[in-house]
Amino acid sequence: MGVTIDVRVAAVRDLGPDVRELTLAPLNGTPLPAFSPGSHVVVHVPGERTRKNPYSLACAPWSTDAYRIAVRRLDDGRGGSRAVHEHVREGDVLAIEPPRNLFAPVVGARKHLLVAGGIGITPFVSYAHQLVAAGTPFELHHAPAGGPLADELEPLRPDAVHAHADRTALMAAVEAALDAQPLGTHLSVCGPPAMMEAVCQAAKRHGWPGSRVHLERFVLDTGPMDPFTVRLAKSGRELAVGEDETLLEALEAAGADVPYLCRQGICGECRLDVLDGTPDHRDIYLTADERAAGTAIMPCVSRCAGDGPLVLDLA
Amino acid sequence: MTYGVSMAHTTLPQDPGLALDPDAREHLVAAVPAGPAVLRLCEQHARDGHGPLTLLEGDEDDVLTRLADRLARAGVGLRLYVAGAEGFVRRAVRVGLDAGLQRDEILTEVDATAARDVWCSHCKAITRGVTTTIAPCAGCGRRLEVFHHFSRRHAAYMGFQADAEVPGELPEPEVRWA
Amino acid sequence: MSATAINVPTGNSPEAIARFPFPFDADGYMYSTNVEEAEKPRSNGVGEWGGRVYDVDEHYRFEIAERDRVLAADPARCQVLPHMRLAAWDVVEDATTRLSRDFPEHFSLEVRGDQRFWTNRLLGIEQSYTLLDDDTLPLEPFEWIVRQLQEDVELLDQRGDDLFFDAGILTFGADWSLDFDLGMSFLEIHGPVPRVHEMGVLPRAFQFLQRLPVGPIYRRTNWTMTVGRRLDTCTEVYHEWGPDRANLRYEEIGERLHLRVEVQHFVRLPRSNAVMFPIRTYLASLDEICTVPAWAVRLERVLATLPQDLVDYKGLTRYRDMTVEWLRERNAARAG
User: Fold this and answer.
1) What is the pTM of this model?
2) What is the per-residue pLDDT across C93-105, written as a single tens digit (0 to 9) for each?
3) Which residues of C touch A284 (CB under 8 A)?
4) Contacts of B26 in chain A (CB under 8 A)
């Protein structure tokens, strides 16, 4: 939380009409961290408002000289991908957060069956590099053919990478593949929600237990960080909690001395009493009853439901 | 050594019971001895199962060997059902896990003797068919307390020397798993 | 599995006592998810501990030799399941990087691309190797590095919304067995611990570990007591250390009975995504504890009020009352 790495946009390459690849090199020459396959980085995209958008690292996991990401332009999104396409140029400096992984492959799986739709192929670039290096069997089906990054994947292990013209052809191949995997194979899927749902349903029909099916979940851990106000009851002071800070950070910046240990919402140390307003609980410490009562909050991760003011029993 | 521990939270194996998994593509059953659980399962399959069902029964070593062979040629979508004596069930589960199955692809039911296998912490030998809370180790002869901690990898329960602190000072063994 | 006679260790110097991770913040003890940010020095009232993930102290050479002795007698104390190869290299990188940075007088690491040159001046080791290439090290990589650490190290593979203990070394454990627990899930390993499930302590710890990202490191402490200044109290050798619990005499408590504290760290490893759990064990005799009056008073209160199920689980049953009495006598004499 808060740590970023400054990178220089070393190259910009269009991989198709809507897809742009950025090569990000460290600004100060220190190697970038190695990462595990399936990792993403949150890129702080500059603009009117800084957007924090996650993008899969589409390069080998030992790429410490530079990272590559592929950004698909979404016109109905929050604007981050548009900003990347319209404003980010070679030579620009960006801040990125260190790699995190919410889509790691099962290490030790006998084989991996990978299914990608469109830009969903990006996390499988790092998978493919790792699996080839480890000598682990895999089978990747993707659509559409000639889509972004396919050219890079194909030579890694030609007999394992299968391009399909469209979703219909992809699903037909997936149905056949689901019946032909050795025990111990794991299925990983990344693509548009409808496509992932279709693959999930097919897997179930073919007897795959849910524990063998893994979907890319691009959800940032704690959810949106909308701003709100806080009133400290004992002094009457009002504070604004911004979208880039936690309640705990805002309180600390205002000089409040709140005890803490983990700053992750688990240990209970930073618990504060709520006198008014509705907490938006994001911790794993309070019990269901305590959350429902709404008279306590863990400020390290939790926020206010609405604009506030959230009234805390503090000076 | 065993005060205050909730049995609900130990590592003891959870046996879901044999019931046909309607989502499975193929059903493989191993039972030594083949008893009521298997009978019920086969009847259920005959009534409303889909996908082939294969039953392996008979001599334990033979069944385990045939099980490993079958699994080596099997694909995802298979469910393994294991029933019979406690010791056999755990050993067969291990064969299944070694072949690449996950624990949730294996359904188990102990419907014969509950006598269990115990792993000796000191000499690593496995003592088979233990029914009492204290039992002599088949490897080193130490009298082992059978602890409520189970390892899928060893397919056995943990045993350690019951009178390690004061040699000869032992609780009375009780028959608990017959 | 019994080893030849163990080397007799020396006690703690005053400097070591000043760095002792005295674990009690209050006059009573109960399980909590007592996780805090790591690498921050913590005061114990007379000095500080906790600035580093791997701690090298005056006992280094003794403990390395002791680890060698235990592994020679029982190689199964160190095991790495095949799919944990990459995690093993993560540990090599993590430990060599931190040790060379935190103890430059003892360790150096030269990095050139994939090439590494490691120097351990305490053990006279000079080793060049290629990252991720097992053949360039004289031992399996995990074993190679942990034989240069005082910590026990456990590795958890994260898969299927669960964490599995799939590699580790345990030569200095407090009555558990790596060989038995290897392959178990996090919750299964803690099955036998009283109260932690119902209290919610364990589920919270579990969720915390699953969400742990690469970067921030956390730590917690654990404690028990050991009769004799003995590090290897694993279940495998219970018959060696068990009798000491029963033959401890009142007048020996100061010298023989030790407070045993584990400092545990939680680190997400970058290449394998595994969670690493180094455990460093510290022993201080009750005589050493009594050199800090506040510690002696607090320990007396903690032991006097410890619930029976925790007393039994921690193995203190035979001598808890006697020890409380011994501390009470000393504390009263000092106060009077």
Assistant:
1) 0.90
2) 999 999 999 999 9
3) 204, 207-208
4) 207
